[in-house]
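Something for you to look into today, if you have time. What I am after is a single protein written out in full by you. I want to see for myself how the chain folds. Could you add the entry underneath, on a fresh line?
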Amino acid sequence: MIEPFKFVEREQNAFVNRQCTFRNCFITENPNYFNDILAFDIIMFDSLTLDEDTELPSERSPYQKYVFSAWEPAAFHLLHERYNGYFNLTWTYKLDSDIPLPYVIIKDQSNEVIGPKMDMHWLDLSQMNETSTYIRNKLQKKHIAAACFVSNCEPTDRMDFIYELKKELNKYGHRLDVYGVCGDLYCPGRYKEMEECFARIESDYYFYLAFENSFCADYVSEKLLHALEHFAVPVVLGGANYSR
């Protein structure tokens, strides 16, 4: 089970846990839950499993909703023409989806979700709280210019930029540290095992290069959070409008 489906709670749990007004819905990944495929109100399709040979339902009720789901960049799941006009709704990272599912959500001080959204309104500087002593102390102890984590070393404009920036910073006595198989510093490959490396970002680095591997509209991955959650300034490169 891959994203985003692995985040969906099965049976009625998603509706009960969120105290939804209507809880008489049931989520299952078992296509044989009903004897008749037409008994399902909604059928969701994972974009990464759809190609010209995918076995699709042999019957379709006009009352059913077919939902296209994607959490990976559009470049990773080019759809065959057989799917033109096939879906009723979209459930993707794009902000104009029928059901938006961004990687990153933005909350206010009351813990209310306020973004991302197409028309985002940020606080003026005068409305923001003073930087806490705790954060000031964190920032004062930093001493290295920037870091990035890179796992794909294929020659790209992104990698060329990283190596050129590294050379330029060296001229002025600053460093860009590259972690991962493309650099000379080691980080474990799995997110939960990277806490030691994230701790280094928090303690040592002013900037973090949050370069996406695909330039798609609205696509902003967890790379941005690597910086924001660890008191580093993200340097972004992607196809999204980051003001949203």
